Amino acid sequence: MLESQIRLRRPLEDDREVMFDILEKSLKPYMGVNIGSSKNLLVIDKKIIDEYIKNDNYFCVVAEINSKIAGWLAGSGKSEILSQHGCAFGDFYIEEIVIDSVYRRKGIGTILINSIKQNDFKAMVVDTPAINKDAIAFYKNLGFKGVQGLPEEFTNSWARMSKQP
């Protein structure tokens, strides 16, 4: 029923603040996962939203219900983005998938994942904090499996998952 109310669309510049708010609230519980690491990959910065909206290297889609953003996904299959994340050429790297807490567990994440033209890629790859058991269960439910490929300093605190079409 909710699925029929969801409209997928490209994000607009006017969506920046809402997208950022959803991202910030979603990541806040996981900001400490990189403590002790020389790099902190969890950066909450409005500039990244601008990149997702304006940069053609990214595929970005928002899910709207009754003209309200319920969640969004950003990722890329472009070689320069893939190399930044240690992914293979031909993969699609899901950089962000965030759902407003009001809309979680209603199928929106699945709809966003399915919006990726999966047959255009060898595999979809995502990294998630290892303590985010709900996200890991979500990805496993969609057919993702744990894989290697994370830089060594993140293997204890992050999980890399992949799904082939």
Structure class: alpha+beta
**Which overall shape is indicated by the principal axes computed on the Cα atoms?**
globular
The major pleated sheet works out as: 7 strands, mixed
What is the number of E strands? 7
Strand order of the largest sheet: 1-2-3-4-5-7-6
Our measurement of the CA-to-CA distance between the termini, rounded to an integer number of angstroms, reads 26 Å
| CATH topology-level fold name | Aminopeptidase
Number of domains: 1
H/E series, N to C? EHHEEHEHEHEE
CATH class: Alpha Beta
Radius of gyration: 15 Å
Average pLDDT for all residues: 89
CATH superfamily: Gcn5-related N-acetyltransferase (GNAT)
Explain how this protein is built:
The chain is an alpha+beta fold. Helices cover about 25% and strands about 25% of the residues. It has a 7-stranded mixed sheet with strand order 1-2-3-4-5-7-6. A hairpin with a 2-residue loop joins strand 2 (about 60-65) and strand 3. The model has no long low-confidence stretch (mean pLDDT about 90).
Question: Could you give a short description of this structure?
Answer:
The protein has helices spanning 16-27, 46-54, 79-84, 108-114, 133-141, and strands at 6-9, 59-65, 68-76, 91-99, 123-129, 145-147, 158-163. It has a single domain, classed as Aminopeptidase, CATH 3.40.630.
